[in-house]
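WARN retry 2 of 3 for item q-0093 after timeout on previous attempt; input resubmitted unchanged.
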Amino acid sequence: MKGGCAIRSQLVLTLIMIYCLLPVSKAYGSIKPLPETTQEIDEEIVQNMQRFNIPGMAFVLADENGNVYVKGYGRNEWEGTEIVDPTTNFQIGSISKVFTSLAIMQLRDKGLVELDAPVTQYLPWFATKETSLSARITIRDLLNHTSGLPGRLNTHDVEGSDPDHIASQIERKLQNVQLVASPGTTYEYTNMNYDLLQLLLEKVTKQPFPNYMSQHVFQPLGMNRTVYSFGDILPNSATGHRYIWGNVRPFHEQLSYATLGSAGLTTSAEDFGKYISFLLGSSSEGNPSVLRSESLLEMHKSDIYDQSTGYGFGWEVSANTIEKKGGLPGFTSNLIVFPNRSYGFALLSNSKQNITDDTNYNISRILEGNPPSHLSKQDSPAINPVNKGILMISTLFAIIVPIMWIPTLLSWLSRKSRFSFKKPTLPTILVCWVLNGLMLIGVLYYIYSYIPYESGTPSLYQLTTAPDTVNGLTILSVTYLLFSISLACKPLLRRSTIVPREL
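OK item q-0093 returned
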């Protein structure tokens, strides 16, 4: 009996030791078994591409050991023949920011930058209208979008690549800017924060921004097709598209050098997977040649909260995820990483549609073992309801103007009436000239001054992110101008009937 007990005890001990040596899944579970999962992912992506007229997409699922699943769908261009594959490059817009913040953390670890030092320590010219407030803005504030700089600010119209020339243009942009809040108190997303970080990096390293990023971030991570979209593009690069009055059309935009740090990166799904693996490696040894694990983890802790979502170092942080969305006039991209579940994934699209984000969230549901939500065309219309409204108002004015003048014109052509000008009455002057004139000035000011100002562009026609809106507002301004002129002139006409002469 004793021998049997000893054998059983030894067997139990052996099983315990074997169990302890087995790899343990992370908290919250792990990725669902492939190939069933990949088939569901493929179906979700393909059906949404067909339903919403998306030319091409690329998807990557990665864990800390590398790419688990990567695939391209569709074509590089709507009517082209080149097929999207895992190495096809897409512009990723604002996801560029989390690479810029990583580079700033590198400089911090090297002792070249202090996160809580004022921006003026590195960029002495930096100042807004209230210099005492802007002098308190720190590097951390730029990283966390807590600088107080208004959301409308960007450098899309800044010319050249020389840092001093760019700095002088930004200095002029900021001189009349008023902060929306005290530094460090409120989250206010603006591209300008990361445009300034790009300048700061060049000042500290004395290197062009793309060169530094290539040498110290992309090459060490093996991201060989990750470059900034400035100048020549790589072969096998997707063309951007967007809806223009309900039809998908190619859409090309040349980014300025000054926007590279906030929105200028182009990369492939295959390269994106390498970046995801690097992010997930922060829980173990990480990649010390790029960034210390402690610093990478620090980047993924939010410094400021908006309800349940935290923000920090360019990321949106929730209880289980770190996320980042990117968009340009012709592209959308979405990155979601689950550090506690040891996987992450990204979806890239060469069409400017929010459906890319919705599709990636559905993929998240699939990976968690849940059915995806149905994505309806009614929830993502090809023509924005606001633009439809603008066209309806324009059509109304276009109908009113002929109604006002056609009877007069017919009467004149028939030679039954004679028209002359009469002296305006006081009500005519007050209503048709003064009030009508003020309303016309207000409408034109709103369209051609206020909207560009709030959008951060010098003029309405440089608002490339919304071509339908630009065209619609142009039509509205013309039709309203005609209506306003008609309203001012019509009361001045005196009509008299022509009496035929008796023979």
